């Protein structure tokens, strides 16, 4: 099973399609079109298209998942009319947004107004080329993939601020400034929490980090880092209770006030892409990625694509926890947010780094592997 | 300044509870909503549906909550064309002027029968028309679903109202104005003031005001101030709608049997 990878699937696809076309065409063209370099080139394109399609599809299903969960938290049913259990509702919404006119404010700066959302969307999608989904299901061997992922992840405040500023609207600008302040404040504890993981795993490669969790998932030994990472991710995703940048009651819609139609859809999609990436990172760093504990029966882990299935299950559960927090907690004030960020999160993350270093130095990590419990 | 804010924020419990308690509440709500949701998915589940009420373990005859429909609920009208006497009283009494008398097929082609056609875009469901109906042929049912994409479909023709009558929905109790076997309009002459209200409002114009002789005033007696006319009802034209009785300001008209 392990030799089926995303690249081999796309290579097979491009090979089959190009050979089918070559069998129809006359001689000189058919040899040219079935040439190995062309097949490889098309395979790379198919690879990207598959990644894009998978990430878009997952994002839309994630919105559906959030709507259904949030509905139950509020004693409603969520979307339920379009498609089975409302699964197609978000596609319908997407088509509606796609067909709408984009209204550009007269005083807006067109360069920033249009490049902001586009760059935000694109940088969020780049992340999917970096993250491994299952063994072999990544875009290649990247020794520093975790660092790259977090670096790309932290582009967002720049583009948010660009689009907010160029909208030429005071609410957008305030939302953009809040967003920048919040993301920068929480970037530090987020990265420090990741440092704890890196110390224990001994690698910046996400695949290696997952395989380091074969015996015990990192949520046991690195519980403090998990809490800090989770809170930091909440702030990075701008989700309730840290959704100050688009606080509806104060700032209309925050930094995307002036955006409508497809540009708003870009923001919406990119937000959920980042939420998906955040959940995926939690799963990869702390919940063992696509692996399952050893005491799980082999029948549950040996079926085709089991890694991807379990990975998606974990990701959606982690996102469910984000939704749970959204359903429970009120929005915090700016001063509370920044005080928690600088006064609580940074000491906690430093503590988690210290704990990780201590665990590695005294070599007591295997203890967690011996406890036959949920700690795994 | 910041210390003041900090002091105000402490409600006396551990800060972890600020997060843990609402999350526990939300989780409880989530679990309850999964197994026993409070919402009713209306177009698919309705409270008046006996099957659904059985699922909720509510006895089917028992009133239940907001969604229950009682038989005095004022919904769409039901019209029995066969017993309608075209008296026009429903259209008279309608405060929204949404009832128009239109001819229905059948009967004498020269004098077609007219029955009410109701525009539900204007109707306020006050029920005056069914109260006014002397024959009890226009009543209101418990049907309340009228949404339609076209405004023209809000106008219900007499035939359509008759269809609703035939569908045997629960109907409002019928208020019959006319007692059994009393089919004539009688006059209590001393009370009449000759005001012409009955004649004016009669839908079939079967009431004529006839002059009566003004009596000689006896010495010491004062004659009543009135118009010296009295209504005479043409029984063959009368449709027994009772409008005259209801409009009479002195209550001098009443139902009775002509000897």
Describe this structure in words.
- The complex is a heterodimer of chains A (376) and B (259).
- Chain A has 376 residues and is an all-alpha fold.
- Chain A has one domain.
- In chain A, 68% of the residues lie in helices and 0% in strands.
- Chain A has helices spanning 6-24, 27-33, 36-73, 89-99, 110-130, 145-153, 156-166, 170-201, 206-212, 223-237, 248-251, 261-286, 306-328, 334-362, 366-370.
- Chain A is globular, with a radius of gyration of 22 Å.
- The two termini of chain A are 24 Å apart.
- Mean pLDDT of chain A is 84; it is low at 370-376.
- With 259 residues, chain B is α+β, with helices and mostly antiparallel strands.
- Chain B has 8 helices and 9 strands.
- Chain B has helices spanning 2-9, 15-35, 50-55, 89-93, 128-132, 158-166, 197-201, 243-247, and strands at 77-79, 99-103, 114-119, 138-140, 155-156, 184-187, 207-211, 229-233, 253-256.
- Chain B starts with a helix and ends with a strand.
- The longest helix of chain B has 21 residues, at 15-35.
- The chains are: A mainly alpha (376), B alpha+beta (259).
- At the A-B interface, helix 3 and helix 13 of A face helix 2 of B.
